[in-house]
Description:
This protein is an alpha+beta fold.
Amino acid sequence: MLNLESQKIENANKSSFRSGMYNVNAVYPKSNCNTVGNMAMSKYGVNNQVKEPNSNSSSNSNNSNDNNNVSATDKRFKTLPAAETLPRNEVLGGYIFVCNNDTMQEDLKRQLFGLPPRYRDSVRAITPGLPLFLYNYTTHQLHGIFEATSFGGSNIDPTAWEDKKCKGESRFPAQVRIRVRKLCKPLEEDAFRPVLHHYDGPKFRLELSVPETLDLLDLCEQAGV
Length: 225
């Protein structure tokens, strides 16, 4: 009995240590039934508890819930083609925002990242603590490491990157508030592009899987401060 109790305590300590190694507070599962996603969420230290269904619930209620879940999932993909989104059974591990030399300083000053309207549904998947990166397409460099301090939303600050033709509306309404987790040297394209999923030639997907995010975090750490 004593040996068994000791083993349980040792396993609990190891689990706690692994959770502490990853400074990621949240990832967004695209599907509740994905085993790999659940393992990745555990690796990030996310409390991934699933409530057991009530055995007294009627089959009609279960069917209704299933339909609602499908509708919510489908809604997330209505603004982006499949090539630009993660497969639905993958977990969102991070996100890349895009800027140029003109908008980058406003991004950092406001501590706010934004993308065009078509990314609204995609950005809503972002949760506080999610690792973020900023790609400057003028210099072709990837900057990091940032993290979300809010949920992704629409027009969190409508005055940011204000549309001169439409006062009170942002040109980049798909927004999230951010903070610097660790400012590393920017990565050059030949370093980070092999990690990313590409489509339509040189374009790369902004939604990052967990493995892609971990690879980018490693590259940032290797680049130094």
